[in-house]
Amino acid sequence: MTVSEHPDPSSATRPSSLDRAAFLARFGGVFEHSPWIAERALAKGLAKGAGPDADTAAGLHARLVAEFRAASEEERLAVLRAHPDLAGKLAAAKRLTAESAGEQASAGLDALTDAERARFTALNEAYTSRFGFPFILAVKGRSKAEILENFEARVGNDRAAEFATACAQVERIALLRLKDLVPG
Q: By residue range, what is the domain housing residue 101?
């Protein structure tokens, strides 16, 4: 038997080889609680035969981000609002998505001192009150100190700047999640 007679073992995990249901099950949560982004990408041909660029984390990310950016401001705001507070009530109640829980734990946000928890709570309340959406930061690979530094700096931004920054962070989170989901 030659190599060409054997199916590519990774083909089952390539995004372009997945049917609609499998694609949405695997990638529908890349943007927090916003499967419509993956659905729109699929509607524009991101399914079987989409091409090899769709089978990389970067290529798939570009297609999903294009749909996020093409969305209305209200739709993008809904994506921002779908994100949990960092070290907030959902985390304390163990009600985060598996992805968010893992990301927050990787930064040590699941093991805060009482003083750190109080600081995060105060910042979360001030930020959400000011902007109408939670503070969003791609925390993977960051320390608690870096996260707090970002939090304290950004709470003083104007709304337009912070909306743009939060959207960029959502895109970064999506890329990091895709890198975990798409081999190679």
A: 84-174+176-180
